Amino acid sequence: MAAIIETQDLTKTFGDTTAVDHVTLSIAAGELFGLLGPNGSGKTTMNKLLTGQIRPDAGTVRVMGLDVPADPVRVRAGIGIIPEQETPPSFLTAEEYLHFVGRVRGITAIDEQAEKWFDILEFRDKRQVLCKDLSRGTRQKLMVAQAFLHEPPLAFIDEPLINLDPIMQRTVKDFLSEYVAGGGTVFFSTHILGIAEEICTSFAILHNGVVLHHGTIDELVTGDRHLEGFFLERVRGHAHA
Amino acid sequence: MRDLFVAMVKEEWRIHATMAGNLGFGLFPVMIAAFSFMGAWILPLFLEIVPASLLAFIVHAMFALMGVMVGSFGIMGREFMNRRFGQASLIAYSSRSLPLSERTIFATFVAKDVLFYLFLWVIPAVAGIAAAAPFIGMEPAFPLLLLVTFSLSFLEGLAVVFFLSTLYARSPRIAGAILAAGAVAVALASLAGIGPAMLLPPYAFLLAPGILPLAASLALIGIPAAVSIAWATIEYPDAARRYPNSFDGLSDRLSLFSRPWLTAKDALDLRRSEGGIAKIIFSFLMPLGLVWVFLSVLFRFIPGLSPLIVFAVLLGVISSTTYNWLTEFDTFSAYAFLPVDVRTVITGKLQSYGVINLVSLAVLILAAAAAGDAGAVVPAVLAFLSVSAYSLAVTVRLTGLYPSVMLYQVRVFLLYLAAISPALLVLIFVSILDPWYAAGSVVLLPAAWFLLDRAMLRWTAFDMPSY
Question: Which ipTM did the prediction report?
Answer without folding.
Answer: 0.90
